[in-house]
Specification:
The chain contains eight helices and eight strands; from the N terminus they run αβββαβααβαβαβαβα. It is an alpha/beta fold. The chain has one domain: Alpha/Beta hydrolase fold, catalytic domain (Rossmann fold, 3-Layer(aba) Sandwich), CATH 3.40.50.1820. Strands 1-2-4-3-5-6-7-8 form an eight-stranded mixed beta sheet, sandwiched between helices. It is globular and about 80 Å long. About 0% of the residues have low confidence. The protein binds 2-acetamido-2-deoxy-beta-D-glucopyranose (3 copies). The site of one 2-acetamido-2-deoxy-beta-D-glucopyranose has 4 residues, from loops. Keywords: Signal. One of its GO terms (molecular function) is hydrolase activity. InterPro entries: AB_hydrolase_fold (IPR029058), Dienelactn_hydro (IPR002925). This is Dienelactone hydrolase domain-containing protein.
Length: about 270
């Protein structure tokens, strides 16, 4: 009798676990680019924006804003790179608020090209690892400091978030950091963060769902690191720069996030 009960109970547990697994979030792989990282590509335009391209450190960079400002911001792009008009428009917006803004070409003229079937995502990524870009970002930031920018902030979008999180692990190097709908960033990365970090999550981002952003937030809170964390409702991964320019929810949320990021930098990069 007892063993029948035990058997029924065990069967019940098994069914319960099958049920729970069937409805659990699919496991996501944080060492690769998700499909949403490359969806909705921008039309690149090398002459877009109010600024110009010049060398910073060893990298061509789109720069905009007064070189006399003491405060600089680096925007680390998503896979589509520094010729994306919406990203340059964002740089110009922060320049108008008093910052000198640089958008480096971490891809050396080779942003991801979804039309190039000879070079699928993983092959492209192998040649353009954010870890390598982090090594190139360091001399670029030293160059900015050398030019008289006493405070530097860095924000990374999707692919760019990983190199920014590496910068955030360095003490006294940049003053504030931000990651927007990140890729590659893990909870272990967040545990090593030493400077203020803002996290911009999209409610519908499958790779970085609100629960994971919440975990990031809890780590920063317990480590007493200054932070800002917000989930933007009704939008997908990429929304802060790959929004619909004609308007709608993605546009509204993008403008809201861009303003939140500006406030973050005004507060911390001074
Ligand atoms: C995650 O993606 C990387 C790069 O594509 C791959 O090497 C690795 O095997 C994947 N890991 C899992 C658990 O799927
Ligand atoms: C590229 O940007 C420049 C400068 O804003 C603009 O004049 C030109 O029309 C744009 N080209 C395309 C194809 O949108
Ligand atoms: C890819 O090809 C499509 C169709 O020809 C074109 O509209 C688009 O601009 C191309 N994208 C890139 C990034 O070159």
């Amino acid at each position: 009798m007892a063993s029948t009960k035990a058997f029924i109970f065990a069967s019940f547990l098994l069914l319960l676990s099958l049920f729970v697994n069937a409805f659990a979030e699919p496991k996501t792989n944080h060492s690769t680019l998700g499909p949403h990282c490359t969806s909705n590509p921008p039309s690149l335009n090398a002459s877009s924006g109010a600024g110009h391209v010049e060398k910073l450190g060893s990298l061509n960079s789109y720069v905009t804003g007064s070189p006399k400002s003491k405060h600089a911001i680096i925007l680390a792009s998503d896979v589509y790179g520094y010729e994306a008009p919406n990203l340059r428009k964002l740089a110009d917006k922060y320049a108008a608020a008093g910052f000198f803004v640089a958008v480096p070409d971490f891809f050396h003229g080779e942003p991801f090209d979804p039309n190039n079937t000879n070079r699928p995502k993983d092959a492209w990524l192998n040649d353009h690892r954010p870890e390598k870009a982090f090594e190139e970002a360091k001399p670029l930031i030293k160059d900015l400091k050398h030019k008289g920018f006493s405070a530097v902030g860095a924000a990374g979008f999707c692919w760019g978030a990983k190199l920014v999180i590496e910068l955030a692990k360095l003490k006294n190097f940049v003053q504030a950091t931000a990651i927007l709908h990140p890729s590659f960033v893990t909870l272990d990365d967040i545990k090593e963060v030493k400077v203020p970090l803002a996290i911009f999550g999209a409610e519908l981002d499958k790779q970085y769902p609100p629960e994971l952003i919440k975990q990031f937030e809890e780590v920063l809170h317990s480590h007493k690191i200054g932070y800002f964390a917000k989930i933007y409702a009704g939008v997908k991964h990429g929304f802060t720069i790959r929004y619909d320019v004609l308007g709608g929810v993605s546009y509204e949320r993008a403008m809201e996030a861009q303003m939140d990021l500006l406030k973050w930098f005004i507060k911390h990069v001074k």
